[in-house]
Amino acid sequence: xxxxxxxxxxxxxxxxxxxxxxxxxxxxxxxxxxxxxxxxxxxxxxxxxxxxxxxxxxxxxxxxxxxxxxxxxxxxxxxxxxxxxxxxxxxxxxxxxxxxxxxxxxxxxxxxxxxxxxxxx
Length: 121
Description:
Elements: H1 5-24, E1 30-36, E2 39-45, H2 50-55, H3 59-75, H4 77-88, E3 92-100, E4 105-112
Antiparallel strand pairs: 1-2, 2-4, 3-4
């Protein structure tokens, strides 16, 4: 791989932001990507809308928002995996995600087949 680790992380953040806008209709306020061994960890801030925060004030509402948001991301996960392969050249073994309804933060973890961190200059 000819680019630096920081450049690759920035490219992944940019691609995920674009995916959010294209697929979900809006992007998060900030996206930070970290590559660690065979994992790509993406932290997204500002995921929820003001209306969703209001709905999350009840336990039932919170569970509904988490479930709906999770289903939305899962329905587009193949596109996300393609972004990772295009940028890193590595296949995604598994994908994990969760959303905090309190902070409005989502974490995505892409587990790869190989240690991609070793590929950087």
